Amino acid sequence: VQLQASGGGLVQPGGSLRLSCAASGDIAGLKNVAWYRQAPGKNRELVASITTGGAPTYVDSVKGRFTISRDNAKNMVYLGMNSLKPEDTAAYFCSMNILPLRGTWADYWGRGTQVTVSS
User: Fold this and answer.
1) N or C: which terminus of the chain has fewer CB atoms within 10 Å of its end residue's CB?
2) Which ranges in the chain belong to alpha helices (H)?
3) CA–CA distance, 33 with 31 (Å, rounded to integer)
4) If residue 50 lies in a helix (H) or strand (E), which one and from where to where?
5) Which of 47, 33, 61, 32 is nearest to 91 (CA)?
6) pLDDT of residue 49
7) Can you give the C-alpha Rg of the chain in angstroms?
8) Which of 66, 79, 81, 77 is nearest to 32 (CA)?
9) Cβ pair 81, 19 in contact under 8 A
10) What is the mean pLDDT of each run of 10 residues along the chain (119 residues)?
């Protein structure tokens, strides 16, 4: 099982980006999925998560600006980011709780995709 994140880039303050994360491999089940971020010199923080039923949660700093969504049929998770601020600059990582066809439930991580908000 592998996770591949994409969609990062350089954007001006107030701009928007949409991150995508796709899980590939022999997947038998998918539970909670989430996006984390890590800025230089800071700890990784949970930005948003969404349950299998579609219930999202967000860290306070992104509420009203970010939207997490998922496509269970495609094993994908998205993060729509609007009104971006310089403090949103970080490497963004997706994480999924996956059951492989031959294995047990475990958390998988994608490589980070860099988001830089700067004028």
Assistant:
1) C
2) none
3) 7
4) strand 45-50
5) 47
6) 98
7) 14
8) 77
9) yes
10) 96 98 95 96 97 95 98 95 98 97 94 96
Query: Position of tokens 């890590």?
Result: 38
What does the block give as tokens for 107?
Answer: 């958390």
> How far separated are the first and last CA of the chain, in Å rounded?
38
Tokens for 102, please give them.
Answer: 């031959």
Q: Beta-carbon neighbour count of residue 14 at 10 Å?
A: 11
At a CB cut-off of 8 Å and minimum separation 6, what does 64 contact?
Answer: none
Amino acid found at 63: K
Determine the residue type at 80.
Answer: G
